[in-house]
Amino acid sequence: MKYYTKEVTKALKTVSVGAMIIVAVVLVKYKPAYAVTLADEELGYIEDKDKLELKVKNYREDTSGNVAFKEQMLVPEYSLKLINRNKKMQDKEVQLAIEDSMITTYRIYAVTVDGNVQTTVSTEEQAKSIVDSMKSGLDENIPLNVGIVEQYTKEFSTQSEEEAFQILDTIKVAKVEEYKEAERVRQEEERKRQEEEARKKIISNKTVTSVGTIAGIGLVRPINGKITSRFGSRSSIRSSSHTGLDIATSLGTPITPIATGTVKFAGWKGSYGNLVIINHGNGIESYYAHCNEIYVAVGQAVDVRTAISTVGSTGNSTGPHLHLEIRQNGTILNPENYLY
Ligand SMILES: [Zn+2]
Questions:
Q1: How far, in Å, is the centroid of ligand 1 from the Cα of 289?
Q2: 289-317 pLDDT, tens per residue?
Q3: Quick one: residue 252, left, alpha or beta (phi over 0 = left, psi -120 to 50 = alpha)?
Q4: Is-contact 301 317, C-beta < 8 A?
Q5: Nearest alpha carbon to residue 104 among 73, 129, 83, 131
Q6: Domain ranges in the chain?
Q7: Which has more pLDDT, 207 or 286?
Q8: Which of 51, 70, 215, 246 is deepest in the core (most CB within 10 A)?
Q9: Torsion of the alpha carbons at 91, 92, 98 and 99, rounded to the nearest 10
Q10: pTM for the full predicted model
């Protein structure tokens, strides 16, 4: 029994010594290492798996600069192998390959004008400084809708602050020009309006002297001019008796009504051309025909200082003149008996 045990012990010793020699020989020539694959692609061998994984983790979690976040879509696989000691380790290359496989999303800042992105810059501070510069020294009436929008992108592309300033400054200059042009047009229209107002005001300020009365209403001349056709006369362009008095003066001369009243008609009426009819009450109406422009509308109250229209040659007319008619309860009267 003892002998047997001794023999076994000896054999075991021999075997373990042999095994140790083999291991020693193997370790002299070979070493353990990890083969790393990513999506079935061999990346290479690494020595220290924990160290590599820590580095990769640190890279993934690093969101400095414009990095918003990184996504690791592919997970590397490690298999432990014994490889020749002379085999070069590729820890750094493998690390970079894994990092490269990640998808990075960047945060950038877009400057918008009227909602349209005009430029993108790296930092919010840059964007703010560009917006401030856009707004500075700008007339408050100029509508400039500038904003900052945070954008997320996988393609990191921004403009330098100088480039961004340049782009926005060009837009600013264009906006200012556009505003100035619109303002110029507005002022021109305002000037024309004021001229028109002034023209009417000249009429309003004219000396009004009542030259006659009819049905208790004091009458004034609608214009001064030369009488070219009298009431009741016939002419080459009329077959019937003349129903009014023609007073000629230059085209565009403002016409005022013979008395206070209300506009009954203002518009085109056949051979009268542009016609204004004023109702003065007490059955009295006055007609102003062949007008060039009409300034009043039906229902409008007018007085002897209101420019109701201008002298023209519209309708059945051979030259600028006012055809004036006065009617009392529908009967046509001779204006010359009251006014001229
Ligand atoms: Zn006439």
A1: 8
A2: 999 999 999 999 999 989 999 999 999 99
A3: left
A4: no
A5: 73
A6: 18-94, 106-184, 212-337
A7: 286
A8: 246
A9: 150
A10: 0.52
CA of residue 225 to ligand 1 center, whole Å = 14
**50 φ, ψ to 5°?**
-60, -40
Distance from the CA of 211 to the center of ligand 1, in angstroms? 21
CATH code 2.70.70.10 for 212-337 = yes
Rounded CA separation 89/172 (Å):
58
**C-alpha of residue 247 to centroid of ligand 1, in Å:** 8
Contacts with 266 (C-beta within 8 Å, 6 or more apart), sequence order = 275, 276, 277, 294, 296, 297, 298, 300, 308
CA 264–ligand 1 middle distance (angstroms): 20
What tens digit of pLDDT does each residue of 6-26 get?
888 888 888 888 888 888 887
CA 337 / ligand 1 centre spacing (Å): 16
